[in-house]
Amino acid sequence: MNVDSTPGEILLAVDELHGGYGAVEVLRGISLQVRQGEIIALLGSNGAGKSTFINTVCGLLAPGHGRVEWLGRDITRLGSAGIVAQGLIQVPEGRRVFPNLSVLENLILGSYRRGRAARQANLERVLTIFPRLRERSGQSAGTLSGGEQQMLAIGRALMGEPVLLILDEPSLGLAPLIVEEMFGLIAQLNREGLTILLVEQNVAQSLELANRAHVIENGSVVFGGSRAELLATDRLRRAYLGS
User: Integer distance in angstroms from the first to the last C-alpha of the chain?
Assistant: First the structure.
């Protein structure tokens, strides 16, 4: 799975994004950039607007105002299928695997829109990263544990050869040991060259991984900067780290 962009290049640029659900505005002018090779953390409590933001970026929700650029091209109104084809791929909150399909069938579906030419090689790589999925390849996805379903959801996304992988609450509902394993995997994928936008409530562990982070409250970015800059912010430490 080759990352086909120049190191350090701006992959995703979001400018003054507004949006929500009908007349209900959730996003209130969010701006951020993601560069090739980074892990960017998007942090905030439940209901802050994190999932609404990434669903709008990925074309699942229509923006009310603002601009989304991918490698310098305006994709604000492109639609989700076209955005996936560009290599901007999301692992949704709650895994959303197809429970009645096998593990193998779920993985193959990940290459439906992108990655077909290298499907077999990508499948072998995913099963090497996740040996438990190899062991359970014939099982129905609905019979897997929560941690295994999260592995399947990530593996399915990797089948589409992401240039930027968006992970929406990957630690949600998982046991602490599985959370540690999941964050270790995220670090490994990034070391291998994958750019990641990590959307999380788990602020402490996310800041251990991230190059930069943005904190969302009530649909707006209230903090942004490097890990060191955020950890030096008293308000952030009190609100999210209990110190």
Answer: 41
Q: What pLDDT score does 48 carry? A: 87
**Which pTM does this prediction carry?**
0.89
Q: Please calculate the CA angle 84-207-70 and round it to the nearest 5 degrees.
A: 25
For residue range 101-154, list pLDDT tens digits in order: 999 999 999 998 888 889 999 999 999 999 999 999 999 999 999 889 999 999
Q: What 8-state DSSP symbol labels residue 112?
A: S
Write down the residue that tokens 């993601």 correspond to. Answer: 34
DSSP H helical ranges for the chain: 50-57, 80-85, 103-109, 119-129, 131-135, 146-158, 176-191, 203-209, 227-231, 234-236
Q: 95 vs 91, 99, 149, 152, 157, CA distance in Å?
A: 7, 10, 6, 8, 11
> For residue range 84-101, what is the model confidence (pLDDT) as tens digits?
999 999 998 877 898 999
- Spell out the residues 6+ positions from residue 108 whose beta carbon is closer than 8 angstroms to its own: 119, 123, 159
3-state secondary structure 7-34: CCCEEEEEEEEEEEECCEEEEEEEEEEE
Q: Copy the structure tokens of residue 203.
A: 């602020």
* CA proximity to 165, closest of 68, 22, 38: 38
Residue ranges of the domains in the chain? Answer: 10-87+196-243
**Residue 57 contacts residue 17 (beta carbons within 8 Å):** yes
User: Domain 10-87+196-243 classified CATH 3.40.50.300?
Assistant: yes
